[in-house]
């Protein structure tokens, strides 16, 4: 399995099922602002709340293969294993499909992710142990403290400035490597000074 980073903003995501797991998958991707439709005979409080908050569509009945035609991502999250399997086998091979009770029937699974600004660390056990994945996520959550959020913004700003400087390729690489020194992450003043220095140099090389 190959990890890919996917842009779901404005994309159609159709979820069969309206229970705990349907809600969890939706809440994981909600930051990306996808256009989600839930299809299920019954919806949990969590799904109703998420939908009200984000304007998601709810269709109250059993899911049907035709429901997924326009979806970029399909999440099969009913508690009926045979319904999930039948829906999975009805889908074309070029659609992204997550089957929450039998990952081998689909072609994508969700990793656990820790987000700090522009940085995202994702963990997967390729379905072998979601518990291990969750444990490692908690460890990473502690390892990457809040300083990483402004630091990744600082790195992005510096990179934009450095790319435009009238210096050689090797000098740019040297500048970019220097930003990885830990003092830039832990010391806000060092970040401010560095940014000012780069801006001055850009204005007057
Ligand atoms: C294959 C995958 C498909 C997919 O859903 O994408 C899948 C499948 C299954 N999970 C099951 C169980 C549990 N999963 C969790 C938790 C998470 N599961 C997630 C992902 C994945 N789960 C994908 C691969 C992940 C990987 O590669 O490691 C996480 C990482 C991401 C997320 O959901 O966002 C999220 C933690 C995120 C976080 O903490 O942030 C918990 C814990 C809990 O719920 O508290 C339990 C109960 C305890 C247990 O059983 O271990 C079962 C058995 C169901 C049954 O009882 O029948 C199956 C079905 C099967 O085994 O195939
Ligand atoms: N991937 C994961 O991380 C995990 C997956 N699971 C699996 O996820 C499945 C769902 O679990 P929960 O959300 O907790 O169940 P739940 O009981 O909370 O919700 C099930 C939902 O499926 C709907 N449903 C049933 N038949 C349907 C159909 N034919 N079409 C559309 N919707 C239908 C119900 O109306 C309900 O909304 C479980 O069967 C379990 O095997 C469980 C834990 C973790």
TrEMBL record:
SUPFAM superfamilies: NAD(P)-binding Rossmann-fold domains, Siroheme synthase middle domains-like. Residues 116-142 form the Siroheme synthase central domain. It catalyses: precorrin-2 + NAD(+) = sirohydrochlorin + NADH + 2 H(+). One of its GO terms (molecular function) is ferrochelatase activity. One of its GO terms (biological process) is siroheme biosynthetic process. Its EC number is 1.3.1.76. Keywords: NAD, Oxidoreductase, Porphyrin biosynthesis. It comes from the Bacteria. Gene3D superfamilies: NAD(P)-binding Rossmann-like Domain, SirC, precorrin-2 dehydrogenase, C-terminal helical domain-like. Pathway: Porphyrin-containing compound metabolism; siroheme biosynthesis; sirohydrochlorin from precorrin-2: step 1/1. This is precorrin-2 dehydrogenase. It comes from Peribacillus deserti.
């Amino acid at each position: 399995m190959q990890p890919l980073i996917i842009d779901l903003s404005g994309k159609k995501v159709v979820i069969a099922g309206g229970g705990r797991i349907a809600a969890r998958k939706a809440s994981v991707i909600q930051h990306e602002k996808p256009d989600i439709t839930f299809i299920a005979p019954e919806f949990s409080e969590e799904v109703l709340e998420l939908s009200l908050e984000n304007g998601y569509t709810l269709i109250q009945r059993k899911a049907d293969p035709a429901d997924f035609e326009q979806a970029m991502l399909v999440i099969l999250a009913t508690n009926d294993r045979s319904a999930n399997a039948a829906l999975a086998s009805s889908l074309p091979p070029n659609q992204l499909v997550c089957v929450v009770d039998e990952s081998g029937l689909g072609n994508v699974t969700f990793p656990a992710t820790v987000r700090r600004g522009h940085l995202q660390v994702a963990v997967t056990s390729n379905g072998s142990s979601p518990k291990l994945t969750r444990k490692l996520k908690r460890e990473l959550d502690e390892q990457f403290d809040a300083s990483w959020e402004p630091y990744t913004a600082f790195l992005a700003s510096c990179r934009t400035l450095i790319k435009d400087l009238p210096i050689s390729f090797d000098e740019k690489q040297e500048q970019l490597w220097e930003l990885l020194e830990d003092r830039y992450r832990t010391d806000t003043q060092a970040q401010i000074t560095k940014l000012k220095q780069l801006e001055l140099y850009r204005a007057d090389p």
